[in-house]
Amino acid sequence: MYIDVHGHISAPAELYAYKAGLLAHRGAHGRSGAGLDKDQVAAALDAPSKSFGGVSHRRHLDDAGIDLQLVSPRPFQMMHSESPAKLVEWFTAETNDAIHLACQVEPRFRGVAGLPQSMELTPAAWTAELRRCVTELGFVGAMLNPDPCEGLAQPPGLGDRFWYPVWEALCELDVPVLIHSAGCRPPARESYSLHFVQEETLAVVGLLQSAVFKDFPDLKVIVSHGGGAIPYQKGRFYASAVRQGIAFEEQLRQLYFDTCLYTADAIELLIRTVGADRCLFGSEKPGTGSVRDPATGRWIDDIHLLIGDIAWLTDADRAQLFEGTARALFRLEH
Questions:
Q1: Is 334 a residue whose pLDDT tops 80?
Q2: Could you give the CA distance from residue 57 to residue 60 in angstroms, rounded to a whole number?
Q3: Considering 199, 200, 284, 323, which one is annotated as catalytic?
Q4: Are the C-beta atoms of residues 56 and 45 closer than 8 Å to each other?
Q5: What is the pTM of this model?
């Protein structure tokens, strides 16, 4: 089976109209709601999208043969830095409800919760939505933005005790977390996509240079987009670790990494660096890579084909990477 651990919701336009209303009235008109129903959600999944090569979400999954997809919010929509905090709380809850509806109309979906990561709230307050999604909606994981400030300020690194209430809740609920950056606003110098690489690189280093995994040995962390720059820049950290008598490769294996990279060379480097057993198939399909490569005619986000091009992987490696590790981490029965 192909279990894609990195998918994002293709939601009805009404969800984003609701968001626009919240931003316009800044909460003065109350929470109300997006008013979504199953028919609207199903229609959004079947609607061809110009952003995704003129193909619908479900058609992308059909053509790639993806059997299960773990679906989280579209990160750039999450507006964690907006104020007041209730806007973030309300929109996050509505987005998670949309994912829950999508899971009811599409049997291949499993929910991954967004968190209301306003810095006007405490991380402990964020976890109420996580608990709701897991215990009431049946979600199997959470997505965490390592920069809730979205470039406006410097947040604590993931090794800081600031984040401990989130780690505690994840361990209590026994669900993994997908580290995935979100929006990026001025005065940040980098673009949205570059922000991902930067923040996910910082996330890896922050976690590995901290006591997090000593304090939370059961914590299950997956880093999106192949761990940012870490596999490519391993030598920068490897040399320092040698001086300290630390095996950097073993440190890296405290984490898991998805394969949401868009070249076979990058995916191969990731697998060689951390091991096939620490990689999970992730495509973000449909998303950034949903455009056809003029050189091959393939969709750039056909990650399963790129993995298939790696000749030295064994059948056991592929089975673990595409299915086995995801089943174990997310406790997927079907």
A1: no
A2: 5
A3: 284
A4: yes
A5: 0.96
